[in-house]
Design the sequence.
């Protein structure tokens, strides 16, 4: 990027840029060189940026009508739904927005894992991304509590009680989190304050995430470095911008279809019952995007170890760049990893499914096996695979497989398929 | 020699400044942390009196104490016998029923599952006591954990019989 820094042409632009070189960053949105072989799985970064901004805007609007008090919260949400102009639309967009946000983030994460985007030199991008993901989970959880329905209340109870597993000081921690001896108004108001704050933390981290990305540049489907920028890359604008916008439109079709025709698809009917501290619903489940973790939590019969396993399942993702020892980035050239990748996807889906079912009998057994496999994948299979796997030959450049029939055996075979 | 002395004096000043700085920042941060602890109005609800004259044998009532549900159960002879016969070696969190219920007929327990805080359902589960719907913990007729992920027995709060018809919890 530094080889052709943008300098403003107008007099005012020059005057401003001399005092604050903000406009110099413009090249990062225009002629930033992007590998020309990026596929549609690469459009989710842009989609996620849209999701974040949309959640912030709809959230700020909702906060103008919502009241964070145990006696008033539930009614204020109904007030938004019935009385506020377009309140139903804005709230449904915000509530379903979290599901769409997580859908996009999971695709984004698994895309990185498939094409090896987490590997050197992009570890810091990956770690910032995982921090963003973790804060997203907390933000979504606290947002789910705000409507103060039965699911809100009991989700808050179960999740905050995870801290009671801490030896000795567990109870002090939970009381500190609640601001009382149980979940109540003090808990609701602080969750609301943090639910408002965290998205802006995410926004800051997204800027760091993109900054870190623009140092080495994008990875790409064949996972090799750009050799000749003039041949292997296209400028971000208009090529990637237009492609991202098209993908965003397709994503929005799904998004608004759910908002308009099935706004309660991801919701739980029990959350239309006001919170009651005396009655726990017979079957409580978290939102779909947290089900795999919930299944891991429940599959361990010990309270403290269950919590540890759940946190560990996220932490193994943070250290993934060092667990995946293979020098080849893209799964395209890793025949075994490619299979294990899909096993992992299946494993996570099974975990999610088990998280939604009651923890008994066969379900519990399946959840335990799936939990075990999850950790085996990251802690045993990935490190070993890096040494044992016979990878296919990687092309010499991004352009090579496109322009020259390729002298490369494996690529030639693939082209014939 | 004099150079070394000077350095030592500087070091001392630095260390002293850092220490004072850390203490100062700590003192400033503490109110910001402590404000989240239960406040005076919450703590004020520390005890509650309950009239139990209407409760029939085998029946259970739920009252709120410190915004937590408390089960007051008038146990039947059968339930008492069941709770007292158990061999302590079978228990995950061994506790005698005699120590949990001062008056064997009345069992007073905090109705919060010791696993993750759900409210267990009465007269359910494999041991005829309580069953937690969230993650499947089974409690017996003394509120002791028998099966499932919960680590400890249902908590017995501090309580006393004010007279034969009234229990004071807290």
Sequence:
């Amino acid at each position: 990027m530094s080889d052709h820094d943008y300098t403003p042409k107008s007099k005012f632009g020059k005057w401003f840029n001399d005092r604050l070189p903000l406009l110099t960053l413009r090249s990062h949105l225009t002629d930033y060189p992007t590998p020309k072989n990026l596929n549609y799985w690469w459009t989710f970064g842009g989609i996620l940026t849209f999701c974040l901004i949309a959640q912030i805007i709809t959230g700020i609007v909702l906060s103008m009508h919502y009241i964070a008090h145990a006696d008033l919260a539930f009614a204020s949400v109904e007030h938004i739904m019935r009385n506020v102009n377009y309140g139903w639309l804005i709230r449904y967009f915000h509530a379903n927005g979290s599901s769409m946000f997580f859908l996009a983030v999971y695709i984004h994460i698994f895309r990185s894992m498939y094409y090896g985007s987490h590997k050197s030199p992009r570890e810091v991008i990956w770690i910032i991304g995982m921090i963003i993901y973790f804060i997203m989970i907390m933000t979504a959880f606290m947002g789910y509590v705000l409507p103060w329905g039965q699911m809100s209340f009991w989700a808050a109870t179960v999740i905050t009680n995870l801290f009671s597993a801490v030896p000795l000081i567990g109870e002090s921690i939970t009381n500190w989190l609640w601001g009382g001896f149980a979940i109540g108004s003090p808990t609701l108001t602080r969750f609301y304050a943090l639910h408002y704050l965290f998205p802006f933390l995410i926004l800051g981290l997204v800027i760091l995430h993109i900054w870190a990305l623009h140092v080495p540049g994008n990875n790409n489907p064949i996972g090799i470095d750009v050799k000749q920028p003039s041949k292997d890359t296209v400028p971000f604008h208009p090529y990637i911008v237009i492609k991202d916008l098209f993908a965003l439109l397709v994503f929005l079709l799904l998004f608004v279809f759910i908002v308009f025709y099935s706004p309660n698809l991801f919701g739980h009917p029990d959350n239309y019952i006001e919170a009651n501290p005396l009655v726990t619903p017979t079957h409580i489940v978290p939102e779909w995007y947290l089900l795999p973790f919930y299944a891991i939590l429940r599959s361990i019969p010990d309270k403290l170890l269950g919590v540890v396993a759940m946190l560990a399942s996220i932490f193994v993702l943070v250290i993934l760049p060092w667990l995946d020892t293979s020098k080849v980035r893209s799964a395209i050239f890793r025949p075994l990893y490619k299979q294990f990748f899909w096993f992992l996807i299946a494993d996570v889906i099974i975990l999610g499914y088990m998280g939604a079912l009651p923890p008994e009998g066969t379900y519990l057994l399946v959840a335990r096996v799936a939990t075990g496999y999850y950790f085996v994948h990251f802690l045993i299979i990935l490190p070993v695979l890096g040494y044992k796997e016979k990878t296919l030959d990687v092309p010499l450049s991004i352009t090579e497989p496109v322009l020259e029939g390729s002298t490369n055996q494996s690529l030639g075979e693939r082209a014939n398929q | 020699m004099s150079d070394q002395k000077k350095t030592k004096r500087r070091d001392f000043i630095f260390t002293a400044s850092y220490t004072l700085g850390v203490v100062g920042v700590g003192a400033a941060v503490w109110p910001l942390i402590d404000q989240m602890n239960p406040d005076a109005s919450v703590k004020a609800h520390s005890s509650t009196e309950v009239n139990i004259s209407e409760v029939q044998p085998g029946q259970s009532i739920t009252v709120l104490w410190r915004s937590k549900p408390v089960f007051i159960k008038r146990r039947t002879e059968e339930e008492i016998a069941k709770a007292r016969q158990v061999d302590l070696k079978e228990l995950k969190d061994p506790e005698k029923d005699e120590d949990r219920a001062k008056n064997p007929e009345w069992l007073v327990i905090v109705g919060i599952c010791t696993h993750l805080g759900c409210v267990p359902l009465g007269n359910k589960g494999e041991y005829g006591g309580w069953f937690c719907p969230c993650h499947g913990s089974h409690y017996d007729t003394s509120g002791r954990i028998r099966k499932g992920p919960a680590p400890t027995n249902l908590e017995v709060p501090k309580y006393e019989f004010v007279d034969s018809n009234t229990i004071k919890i807290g």
